[in-house]
Specification:
about 150 residues
Length: about 150
């Protein structure tokens, strides 16, 4: 069994840049497909489970966030396609760790690469680290890369 699919989970922070570089390095080394995933944290959006009852202004905010995410992913994909043969991008909304693991299972990913410190701070003490939660629940290997 080889490494054919690598997912790079990104929050677009500077802290994720070393993980991006490592994901690219591994994809080139193994000739693997690179899947770039961003999860919009639904806890920051309000009430995503009640989409049909979300106020218009909140729905507009969510639409703007999705458009921004798509632009970031498109730019990253265009940049990384110069180095990696097969790059595809995806975005989801939900609890980041759960969505990353679910995505890896759905796409039969061989390796998850992600940074260890994204948007952290006091919230880390309350909800824990996304990377820690992914490591604990993933069915495939997870490579965590520390920020410089």
């Amino acid at each position: 069994m080889g490494t054919k699919k690598i997912v790079f989970a990104t929050d677009f922070s500077e802290n994720s840049a070393p993980a991006r570089d490592r994901a690219v390095e591994y994809a080139k080394t193994f000739g693997a497909e690179l899947l770039i995933l961003h999860v919009v944290n639904s806890r920051l959006l309000g009430y995503p489970s009640f989409v049909e009852r979300v106020p218009v202004d909140l729905a507009l905010i969510e639409q703007n966030i999705r458009q921004g995410v798509e632009q970031e992913l498109d730019a990253m994909s265009e940049d990384l396609a110069k180095e990696v043969k097969h790059v595809t991008t995806y975005h989801r909304t939900g609890a980041p760790a759960e969505e990353i693991v679910r995505f890896a299972d759905e796409y039969e990913v061989d390796l998850i690469v992600m940074g260890t410190h994204g948007w952290t701070g006091f919230k880390h003490l309350i909800v824990g680290s996304t990377a820690e939660n992914v490591v604990r629940s993933s069915h495939c290997p997870v490579l965590t890369v520390r920020a410089k």
